[in-house]
Structures are given as structure tokens and as C-alpha cells.
Amino acid sequence: MRRDNLTWESEFVLLGLSSDRQTQAGLFVLFAAAYLLTLLSNGLIILLIGLDARLHLPMYFFLCNLSVVDICYTSSGVPQMLVHFLLEKTISFTRCGTQLFFSLALGGTEFLLLAAMAYGHYVAVCAPLCSVAVVSWLIGLVSSMVETVVMMYLPTRGYMC
Questions:
Q1: Are the C-beta atoms of residues 78 and 31 closer than 8 Å to each other?
Q2: If you count DSSP H runs as helices and E runs as strands, how many of each does the chain have, helices first?
């Protein structure tokens, strides 16, 4: 006779790093300070790039986007972790899945932005005359893809391509 476990849990119980209240309070202060430092430093980067017209270059555009993604990435998990240090020790299945989705999506976006920045620097250093050509090719490919997709959705009069 086979027995399957059909128990369904709607939330997870988080054990945490320590059950000692003083250790939890110390960890709360440590992680809250690191979180505020991350928010302030990335916010300062965004503010300075926005205010100084000399920094309106592609490299700083990517750096500004990287700062925005970093703020969103850390904000997807750290506030919830701070709550768990002091108050509730459970998280619902839906909230856990949502937090996982945003963490993976924003982490992947951050990696792709870093890769794009690294490739841009590589092209600028190794082949400085080709950097304009590479950017032109990329813009041309993206614009042609957008135009093709838009055209494929236009209504036709019974004729197929």
C-alpha cells in the first residue's frame, strides 16, 4: 500500500540566524545600516548624474540604470528580512514566490547591465574607431526588429506575406 503525503502548507516558518533577541537586534542594526548606505549611495549617484550635464554620456547612463536596478534589487529582499529579524517569523508561499521572482529578475538585469557596460568598454579600448559602428549596428538591428514586429501586426486585406 502506497501512502502519499498530501499536506499543503500555505506559509514557511523562518528559523533565522539566531534565536537570541540581542543577536537579532544587533543583526537588525547591521543590516539596516548597510541597506540605508546602499540606498543613499545609489541615490547620490543618480542625483549627481542627473544634475551634471557633463555626465549625460552613455557610460553614465548605464551607471545610472545600474544604480536604479541596485536600489530595486536590495529593496526586494532586505526590508522583508528586517521585519523577520524583529517581528514575524513566517512568510506566505505567495510572498516567497513574489520575492524570489523579483530577486531573480532584478539580479539578472543587473548582470546583463554589467555585461553591456563591460562590452562597451572593451570595444572603446580595443577598437575605438569601431565603437560607433558597433553601436550603429545594434541600433539598426533593434529598430528593424521593432519595425518588423509592428508591421506583422498590421491588418492586411487577405494577402499574406
A1: yes
A2: 5, 2
CB atoms within 10 A of CB 7: 5
pTM given for the model: 0.70
- Rounded to 5 degrees, φ, ψ at 12 are -105, 145
Secondary structure (DSSP) of 21-62: HHHHHHHHHHHHHHHHHHHHHHHHHHHHHHH-GGG-SHHHHH
Contact 33, 74 (CB under 8 A): no
Distance of alpha carbon 11 from alpha carbon 9, whole angstroms: 6
Cell numbers 514557511: residue: 12
Cell of 121: 568598454
Assess whether pLDDT exceeds 80 at residue 124.
no
For residues 110 and 69, the answer to whether their CB atoms sit within 8 Å is: yes
Out of 25-39, 58-72, 85-99, 141-155, least confident range: 141-155
Residues in the chain: 161
Stretch (H or E) spanning 133: helix 131-152
Are the C-beta atoms of residues 24 and 16 closer than 8 Å to each other?
A: yes
Q: Which amino acid is at 142?
A: V
